[in-house]
């Protein structure tokens, strides 16, 4: 590849992202890559609301996307198909040295399929987490398919790397650590300065932080209402940044998500404010894999509203409990789950992005 002056240019890597957790992972990786490679950022726009996308690019100083695909909301098939249709001609045009995908979304799978069909190397950041739930969750199917199709698998933990080895993928795997931990460490001073609980007249540390967005928890209004009641019954004030999907379901069903005594539904917050809320919570209740990790980083007890966690190492370490949907167990866990003691270093030392960039440079250099 040559520029207009006939000089050789560094190889091009295309990074495909579409939702909040992927933006977080992209931020340090993009900075590390751009020291020696060219990068084009493709945003599928799965998360397109400013509160879910634009604020993250600003908080994390991510370069503006080079290409927007306009995929937006839809069923799993619709999102995957739209991403494939929009991305394939773009990849043909750009002809990158590698395609970089993140996590476990429909965009992750679609970008992987598009690249593989064009004989382009695929690099999977956050390869290897498993629920082993018989593909009951769509994310599990996306993870497994992406890992088995990818050229280079970048595992965030030793547990994830071991999963890949068991599936015969050890020779494609590099254990890099987790770039989400890089971002977390680098952002702490800015995050601490936001103090978002003060706007709600709450003291630091005296609340539950609740997040809900997975279809199994929010698409059934009765299930959503039951989970919210169970969390409120824990006896602590509840701060609830409401995902747009969750709010749509609640409004359609007539479920009031309004501020009441001890209950604070708020608009989604940016990365820095979210880290501040996580670090200052008494306990985190969530169905988000990313929030589970950030609670662990923050040394805050985490209650996972599922029967399994994609991060079982955090459960084994004693800081995360997979509680399922039983209201009584949820309420009791909020009242009593208070782990103590030193944490193991599960997600690296905060230098994952450098290891990821080095692995990618080695790949594209042949």
SSE layout:
Layout: E1 12-17, H1 20-33, E2 38-43, H2 54-59, E3 67-68, H3 76-94, E4 98-102, H4 106-117, E5 122-125, H5 138-149, E6 152-155, H6 158-166, E7 173-175, H7 179-194, E8 208-211, H8 215-218, H9 221-232, E9 238-241, H10 244-253, E10 263-266, H11 271-280, E11 283-286, H12 289-297, E12 302-304, H13 312-316, E13 320-322, H14 327-336, H15 352-364
Parallel strand pairs: 1-2, 1-4, 2-3, 4-5, 5-6, 6-7, 8-9, 8-11, 9-10, 11-12, 12-13
Note the main attributes of this structure:
alpha/beta, six-stranded parallel β-sheet, 2 domains, 366 residues, seven-stranded parallel β-sheet, Rossmann fold, 15 helices, 14% strand, 13 strands, globular
Description:
This protein has helices spanning 20-33, 54-59, 76-94, 106-117, 138-149, 158-166, 179-194, 215-218, 221-232, 244-253, 271-280, 289-297, 312-316, 327-336, 352-364, and strands at residues 12-17, 38-43, 67-68, 98-102, 122-125, 152-155, 173-175, 208-211, 238-241, 263-266, 283-286, 302-304, 320-322. With 366 residues, it is α/β, with parallel strands linked by helices. Strands 3-2-1-4-5-6-7 form a seven-stranded parallel beta sheet, sandwiched between helices. The longest helix has 19 residues, at 76-94. It is globular. The mean pLDDT is 92.
């Amino acid at each position: 590849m040559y520029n207009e002056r006939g000089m050789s240019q560094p190889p091009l890597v295309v990074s495909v992202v579409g939702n909040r957790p992927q933006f977080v992972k992209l931020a340090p990786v993009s900075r590390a890559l751009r020291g020696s490679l060219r990068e084009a950022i493709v945003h599928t726009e799965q998360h397109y609301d400013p509160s879910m996308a634009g604020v993250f690019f600003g908080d994390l100083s991510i370069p503006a996307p080079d290409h927007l695909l306009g995929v937006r909301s839809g069923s799993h098939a619709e999102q995957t198909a739209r991403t494939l249709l929009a991305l394939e001609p773009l990849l043909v045009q750009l002809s990158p040295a590698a395609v970089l995908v993140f996590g476990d979304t429909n965009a992750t799978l679609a970008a992987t399929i598009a690249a593989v069909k064009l004989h382009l190397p695929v690099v999977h950041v956050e390869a290897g987490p498993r629920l082993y739930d018989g593909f009951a969750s769509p994310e599990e199917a996306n993870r497994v398919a992406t890992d088995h199709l990818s050229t280079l698998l970048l595992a965030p933990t030793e547990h994830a790397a071991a999963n890949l080895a068991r599936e015969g993928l050890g020779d494609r795997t590099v254990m890099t650590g987790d770039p989400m931990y890089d971002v977390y460490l680098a952002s702490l001073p800015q995050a601490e300065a936001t103090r978002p609980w003060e706007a709600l007249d709450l003291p630091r540390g005296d609340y539950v932080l609740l997040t809900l967005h997975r279809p199994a928890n929010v698409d059934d209004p009765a299930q959503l209402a039951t989970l919210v009641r169970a969390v409120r019954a824990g006896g602590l004030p509840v701060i609830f940044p409401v995902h747009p999907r969750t709010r749509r379901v609640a409004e359609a069903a007539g479920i009031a998500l309004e501020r009441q005594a001890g209950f604070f539904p708020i608009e989604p917050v940016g990365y820095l404010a979210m880290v501040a809320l996580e670090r200052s919570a008494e306990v985190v209740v969530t169905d988000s894999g990313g929030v589970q990790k950030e609670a662990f980083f923050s040394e805050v007890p985490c209650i996972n509203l599922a029967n399994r966690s994609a991060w079982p190492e955090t459960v084994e370490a004693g800081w995360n409990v997979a509680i399922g949907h039983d209201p009584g167990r949820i309420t009791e866990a909020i009242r009593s789950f208070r782990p103590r003691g030193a944490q193991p270093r599960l997600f690296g030392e905060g230098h994952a992005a450098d290891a990821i960039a080095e692995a990618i440079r080695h790949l594209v250099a042949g």
